[in-house]
Amino acid sequence: MKTTPLHKAHQAAGAKMVPFAGWEMPIQYQSIGAEHIAVRTLVGMFDVSHMGEFWVRGPDALEFLQRLTPNDVSKLKVGRAQYSMLTNEHGGLVDDIYIYRTQASEYLVVVNASNIEKDWAHLQAHRGMLDVALEDESDFFCLLAVQGPGAVHALQKFTDIDLEAPKKNDTFMGKIVGKWARFARTGYTGEDGYEVFLAPDEVEKVWHTLLEAGVTPCGLGARDTLRLEAGFPLYGHEFTDQTSPLCTPFAWVVKAHKTFLGKDAMLGRPCGQKLVGLSLESGIPREGYTVHKAGTQVGTITSGTHSPVLRRGIGMAYVAAELAELGTTLEVDIRSKLYPATVVEMPFVKK
Amino acid sequence: MNYPSDLKYTKSHEWVRLEGDIATIGISDYAQDALGDVVFVDLPQPKAVSAGATVAVVESVKTASDIYAPVSGEVLQTNSALADKPELLNSSPYGEGWLFKMRVNPADVEGLLSAEEYQALAESQ
Is-contact B17 B23, C-beta < 8 A? Predict the structure, then answer.
């Protein structure tokens, strides 16, 4: 089992450690609910050093990423970041990713921990004759996500750079607690905040400084409930190698004016089912529970939880495309009892 | 972690308090800590149940967890306070957070784990 450089710090902070994608990671420190609320109301921080980081460099770096991702990388300016995906030949998804343009011909690609090896093999297999250098630097990057309405204020005390001015998806280098870091105004919680990329031997100093400044340490449990309230997908749940993003609320990522791997297959495939958000008056939907309408199964829950903010069950589900309209009433089978559920707009929690 | 010595326990982390032939059942301090914030409890209707049968479900933010009948008997009453305050399982697992009461054969309860046995089991996990 791999561990991050913060493993001892997590244990010292009372974390419950669990296996996740080959890593031993904190699932929670005090309670998922309290950590969740800390991020929604003030500021929390997550060690997400298990995420993968690849460098894509060289004269053909742009062309390479254009071919493998459905968003338009040519629109990405230096110092900006873009949500995107890696597509396969069949129009499904290898992963969902974030691309940071760090220099004119240099991109940092951040991928899911569970997909590092698969993504790396995929990139290698599709470089063709392009003049592009690929480096898997996943072991040389640690990543702290500092999230919440108080995130900028909490970080600002420890850096000379103005953290208020940058916009969402801006990225830049700067020092924090005297350590060089890459800052990105991105996140996976639906809150304002930064993701801070650090060298492995420097992350602990930053972690302890923020901890002492009152930033709440948060585990993967709260990360999951926060991303669900924010309506963000998680690979392996909402997205798989079979999934077309066109059948999800993330169709906006796919830019039809450019070409990319699997584009024709993706555009030629009808959406039998669509990804929707479901809200329940009572009962908590969980992954794998079935969704019904008038006695027939019409879908399956991909992620579900009790929303700590809404104090009700919420979930995402693939349901028959004709039942994906907002306001449609469906039922979720929870332990052989049917609970009413309504198709609602995501994010579930609006900021 | 607290394991009152006047209770009996199961390997699946329920506790049993016996008064005459009435057993009160809940989940242990270890179990509530492992589950985290309890947000919903699905309690049984009054009915006869067999030892080991699933009789209730405790849902935390993260997961749904089955609760089993520690011994055979008849479910008589459930803790109605949990409908509005499921968090009582976290704050008072052996008190206000009890789950349900059963009529049982007291001899069956004797066969369950003592506090010492249960503590050894829980702490080895």
Answer: yes
Element (H, E) at A64: helix A61-68
C-alpha radius of gyration, chain B, whole number: 13
Contact assessment for residue A256 and residue A243, using Cβ atoms and an 8 Å cutoff: no
Is the whole-model pTM more than 0.90?
yes
The answer to whether A338 faces chain B, any CB pair under 8 Å, is: no
Which amino acid would we find at residue A136?
Answer: D
CB-CB neighbors (< 8 A) of B89 in chain A: none
For every residue of A126-141, DSSP letters joined together read T-TT---EEEE-GGG-
Residue (of A342, A345, A344, A341) closest to A332 by Cα position:
A341
B39 inside 8 A of chain A by CB: yes
Per the DSSP assignment, residues forming a β-bridge with A301 are A317
pLDDT in tens, B77-125: 999 999 999 999 999 999 999 999 999 999 999 999 999 999 999 988 8
CA distance B2 to chain A (A): 18
Which residues of chain A neighbour B62 with C-beta distances below 8 Å?
Answer: 27, 32, 221, 224-225, 305
Chain A neighbours among B 66-125 (CB < 8 Å)?
A: none
Instruction: Summarize pLDDT for A147-197 with one digit per residue, the tens.
Output: 999 999 999 999 999 999 999 999 999 999 999 999 999 999 999 999 999
Residue from B1, B35, B37, B87 to probe the interface with A (highest A Cβ count within 10 Å)? B37
